[in-house]
Specification:
The chain has about 350 residues and is α/β, with parallel strands linked by helices. It contains 14 helices and 12 strands. It has an 8-stranded parallel β-barrel, surrounded by 5 helices. Strands 5-6-11-10 form a 4-stranded antiparallel β-sheet. Strand 2, helix 2 and strand 3 form a beta-alpha-beta unit. It is globular.
Length: about 350
């Protein structure tokens, strides 16, 4: 297991690389180029400059997250082939820079949705939370305004302004989209890019839909066991793999996360893992928590043991954390609680390793 930490890049993240380097057991950062709009090629010089900056700090840069898929590709619209070619060029540029995994998603319009970005908990920390009734009764345009107001001045991944400025138009374009059409468009995309990935040694790792159910009438396809199986079967290749996000899939209590890990990691089709905990109040209502099992609804020991038992040797990062100790930063992406999460996950891994060795 290679432990990593998400970092949004110079000018987009208030956490210095030097501080990340001090987290015990860290191997690298999972990063992105926040200024490149979806559909455009990531310039090779910018990728190499980011790589140098990270490596100069003593960290690796082998996982890239948020190479956003243009909506025309998801919609199967007129310019999708052009955008797919741009995506392929970006894949080649990232491979030349040493990237091994690209985390992406295929969620229409919104990458993820929450009803709150800073819900206060009894201990004084704040977390992101989701209440289905509140979300469904808020106009999507109003939700965008709320996020902009509550984000602390940071651009939120998946909620970049250029992607949302034509929100009403996008909802109209998706009016006749269903799960079958969306799966078909994902297959078209994968059939185009996976041969290139196999050639250059990149693994595409799709992120589950967050949360894993339809929202505002938009279809969701990466939501449970059947959807995961189906997308892997679209192109049967190690380069077509998963980002297994425990918090995203786990927000639906019908999803057995340790069983998912044993199945898909056992198939060697998990390239990347986001490990985090959530507290489910009832179906459709949850909030994020510390990584500690007893603070949430997911069994972190069982999840980590499932990864260990299946011989997982890919990349892991602690996912969303609380905002604690007065820290001000991007919601879900503070330094302190995610660093605690890394320490906890590494402790579980070490204990399981020593137990297994007798």
């Amino acid at each position: 297991m290679k432990m990593t930490f998400r970092w949004f890049g110079e000018g987009h993240d208030n956490i210095p690389l030097a501080h990340i380097r001090q987290i015990p057991g860290i191997s690298g950062v999972v990063t992105t180029l926040m200024d490149i709009p979806a559909g455009e090629v990531w310039p090779e010089d910018q990728i190499l400059a980011m790589k140098k900056q990270v490596e100069d700090a003593g960290l690796a840069i082998e996982v890239i997250e948020s190479v956003n898929v243009h909506e025309d590709i998801k919609l199967g619209a007129g310019r999708r082939d052009e955008y797919i070619e741009n995506y392929i060029t970006t894949i080649r540029h990232l491979a030349k820079a040493g990237a091994k995994v690209i985390c992406y998603n295929f969620m229409p319009v919104f990458d993820w949705i929450r009803s709150d970005l800073a819900l206060p908990l009894p201990d004084g920390s704040t977390v992101m939370a989701y209440d289905a009734a509140r979300v469904e009764h808020v106009d999507p345009l109003k939700l965008v305004e709320n996020f902009a107001r509550e984000s602390g001045g940071f651009s939120l991944p998946g909620w970049e302004s250029e992607r949302l400025k034509e929100l009403s138009f996008l909802f109209g374009e998706y009016r006749n989209m269903d799960t079958e059409k969306l799966f078909s468009n994902l297959g078209y995309f994968l059939h185009a890019i996976i041969p290139v990935c196999e050639e250059v040694g990149i693994r595409m790792a799709i992120h589950p839909d967050d949360p894993p159910w339809p929202i505002y009438g938009l279809p969701r396809i990466v939501i449970g066991e059947a959807g995961l199986e189906r997308l892997l079967a679209l192109v049967d290749s190690p380069s077509n793999s998963l980002t297994l996000c425990t918090g995203s899939l786990g927000s639906n209590p019908d999803n057995d996360i340790p069983a998912f890990v044993r199945k898909f990691s056992g198939m060697k089709r998990v390239a990347f893992a986001h490990i985090r905990n959530i507290k489910i109040e009832k179906k459709g209502v949850f909030h994020e928590t510390s990584h500690l099992s007893s603070d949430g609804s997911l069994d972190m020991f069982a999840i980590v043991k499932a990864f260990y038992d299946t011989g997982f040797d890919g990349y892991v990062r602690p996912d969303h954390g609380r905002m604690i100790w007065g820290e001000i930063g991007r919601p879900g992406y503070g330094l302190y609680d995610r660093a605690l999460g890394i320490t906890y996950l590494n402790g579980l891994w070490e204990a399981i390793d020593k137990m297994s060795r007798g």
